[in-house]
Amino acid sequence: MRILITNDDGINAPGLEVLQRVAETVAGPSGEVWTVAPAFEQSGVAHCISYTHPTMIAKMGERRFAAEGSPADCVLAGVHDVMKDARPDLVLSGVNRGNNAGENTLYSGTVGGALEAAIQGLPAIALSQFFGPENAQLDDPFEAAAGHAAALIRDLLDRGRWDSNGGYRTFYNVNFPACPADSVKGRRVTVQGVRPDVHFTVEPIHAPSGRRFVWIKGGRQDVPTGDGTDVQANLDGYISITPMRADLTAHDHIAPLRTALE
């Protein structure tokens, strides 16, 4: 198996080292793991692509490349340049430092990389590690992901649904709970949740020059979101597995709007 890995935390991020080991396990002794990851951190860029300027790409080692662009740029570079002679069989994005559940999914460059792979017709999985008091001080805060990701990926490849249903292809968003590996309670297939009254804000500051800037500021991550959702599964100690597609249509609105407006 040929696996392409990327992330949004940057090519030197510890989560990418975890994903490298996981991907090598999944690929097997005769497989190949290729890395095309951002040269610098790209958190929060979602599905952004560098459409108006070129992306520099540099070889950092055997099957290892850094690109001055977003995770989606990295997937495009990997599929159509670095691995153009033999496309990957699977694309893995992560392991992100922090959860990409709930509303975070919409901003996530990690998810954006998997989304682009799915648009390119490839099986893709985004993987993120929830951080909290139970794992933040561990020697390896990615312990839950490191211990459970390979088996989960194999099971998704064997038993998951990868169809396009006549449209956009399915990909998976996986989040590991904020606990040690041996404390993970199991897996839950979930829908994307939303944390009530949690959203990004800004914090204004003044530079020494007197100029005014704002920092983007996140909200609380420990807010419950209800049974069956990704955030709640993670808070309860479970791995969340959320099947996703790129289709943003509110399908339940189509019929009533046709009646009202056509």
Automatic annotation (TrEMBL):
One of its GO terms (cellular component) is cytoplasm. Binds 1 divalent metal cation per subunit. One of its GO terms (molecular function) is 3'-nucleotidase activity. The keyword Glycoprotein does not apply. It catalyses: a ribonucleoside 5'-phosphate + H2O = a ribonucleoside + phosphate. Its main location: cytoplasm. This is 5'-nucleotidase SurE. It comes from Tropicimonas isoalkanivorans.
